[in-house]
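Figure 3 (text version): structure tokens given as input.
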């Protein structure tokens, strides 16, 4: 819908006062009060609770305010995109991803995307998972691929899949004692207590995957004594491939592991432990057709790893 002078209402909300908003806008207070009354009358709802000082948004006002903020963002985005087209600049798609996730996902997705949008420049923002949400909140990226965020005040997400978590180690590790479990046919690890005195490579404890693993340890009364904390999943896999311990890996990345022929892969528990994956972006943000196409490619690619208990 068309809203005349939306900045008037946004300024009233920001100042939480009609008189202060009028001063900021160089308008008279009666004129701005009349504007607000006409706006509420046209919408058929009360937008501001005038019984409170400072002014407070009603539920309808909160909804209308969110709409105007999004509309303002879309207007700025449209002007920027049209300017780029006028100046013959390549459209840019900013994607946030962890270094490991990018290395396992993009070799399959990027060629397909470039076939659909050859003129769009993809810019990667590689960062640890906890920082990806911050990039989305700050509108630095169009979207990111990560676990669903805990705080949804500024963000929203689309579920992509739940993938199994594999425990991986060298096939000839003495602890296996002839047990073999291949990537194509993984078996449950027999007893997590066997890991208590083995080197276990794990991501920082505040990361979502590690929280799931620590909870699994607790459920099975396991307290690993030799933890090696790393922020790089590739480091963990490389060490496991050299018989230097055990690591954990999401199923979707196993096939891209260069040492797959050396590794045994086990699931954890029954039903197997899984971890959610989502596409995350700014709430009320704008997803360009190119961004939507990239997200659809991600969902289609990961659909083969989406674990659904029988």
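Below: residues designed for each position.
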């Amino acid at each position: 819908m068309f809203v005349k002078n939306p900045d008037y209402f946004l300024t009233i909300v920001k100042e939480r006062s009609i008189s202060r908003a009028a001063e900021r806008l160089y308008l008279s207070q009666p004129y701005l009060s009349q504007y607000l009354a006409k706006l509420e009358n046209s919408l058929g709802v009360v937008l501001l609770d005038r019984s409170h000082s400072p002014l407070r948004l009603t539920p309808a006002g909160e909804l209308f305010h969110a709409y105007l903020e999004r509309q303002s963002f879309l207007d700025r985005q449209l002007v920027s995109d049209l300017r780029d087209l006028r100046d013959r600049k390549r459209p840019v798609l900013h994607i946030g991803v962890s270094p490991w996730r990018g290395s396992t996902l993009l070799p399959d997705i990027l060629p397909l995307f470039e076939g659909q949008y050859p003129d769009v420049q993809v810019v990667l923002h590689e960062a640890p998972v906890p920082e990806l949400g911050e990039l989305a909140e700050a509108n630095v990226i169009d979207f990111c691929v990560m676990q669903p965020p805990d705080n949804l005040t500024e963000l929203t997400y689309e579920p992509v899949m739940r993938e199994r978590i594999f425990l991986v180690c060298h096939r000839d590790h003495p602890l296996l004692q002839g047990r073999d479990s291949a990537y194509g046919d993984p078996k449950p690890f027999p007893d997590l207590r066997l890991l208590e005195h083995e080197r276990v490579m794990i991501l920082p404890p505040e990361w979502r995957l590690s929280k799931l693993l620590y909870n699994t340890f607790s459920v099975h009364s396991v307290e690993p004594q030799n933890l090696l904390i790393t922020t790089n999943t590739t480091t963990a896999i490389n060490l496991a491939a050299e018989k230097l311990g055990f690591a954990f890996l999401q199923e979707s990345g196993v096939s891209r592991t260069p040492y797959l022929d050396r590794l045994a892969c086990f699931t954890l528990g029954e039903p197997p432990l899984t971890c959610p994956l989502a596409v995350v972006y700014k709430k009320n943000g704008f997803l360009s057709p190119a961004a939507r196409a990239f997200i659809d490619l991600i969902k289609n690619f990961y659909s083969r790893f989406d674990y659904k208990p029988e």
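The chain has three domains: 6-85, 89-160+275-305, 162-274.
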